[in-house]
């Protein structure tokens, strides 16, 4: 993607190769084979620490696939307004939203926000906020917001709020269903099994666009208006 004019570099460019190498090196970083479907069986109560219903979701794989996708399409700094440009939306944002939403996996929003956290961490040592990692983090937030909106639009009635609540409040860990060798490498880490809900990751990463969205606000309001 190019600055302002919506320029994109060819998929086979050297920048993409460099991005792939960067992504591969990150595979072992402690980031906050059939298609897994979410059948919306939501009979049990929702708690951020309750993950049994979602234990099969390939969270680790999702995180790194998303990272590779984001790195491959973002090679220049773009603002949020530029990412919303019609040309960028049609050529970059919408295809990624379609691809990820079609997985019907409620961990996708969490995985996007974890990637946002990682990209923000990688750019935190740079004085200039106008860098490629900041754009990648912003794109992750934008896609997460639009995927949450689609879940909101595609589920009606009482089920609507339950689906959104599971997406935002169910707890996931960044190494869920990681390969055995990865678990062996991180056994010494005290926090690798820690689970967080997508909503908390959004708050920690100051994802204001995501948190102010109608879909997120619907759950936010229901949480604080529920009787004690």
* Biggest β-sheet description: 2 strands, antiparallel
Give the total of beta strands. Answer: 2
Roughly how much helix do the residues carry, as a percent range?
55-70%
Structural domain tally:
1
End-to-end gap: 48 Å
What is the 3D form? globular
Strand percentage lies at under 5%
Radius of gyration: 17 Å
Q: What is the spatial order of strands in the main beta sheet?
A: 1-2
Low-confidence stretches: 3-25, 28-52
Query: Number of helix segments?
Result: 11
> What structural class is derived from the secondary structure elements?
mainly alpha
Order of helices and strands: HHHHHHHEHEHHH
Q: Average pLDDT, to the nearest integer?
A: 79
What does this entry show, briefly?
The chain is mainly α and 228 residues long. It has helices at 14-25, 59-73, 80-83, 86-101, 108-123, 132-154, 158-169, 180-185, 198-204, 208-211, 214-225; strands at residues 171-172, 196-197. The protein has one domain.
Outline the structure in words:
The protein is mainly α and 228 residues long. It has one domain (32-225). The chain has 11 helices and 2 strands. It has helices spanning 14-25, 59-73, 80-83, 86-101, 108-123, 132-154, 158-169, 180-185, 198-204, 208-211, 214-225; strands spanning 171-172, 196-197. Strands 1-2 form a two-stranded antiparallel sheet. The chain is globular, with a radius of gyration of 17 Å.
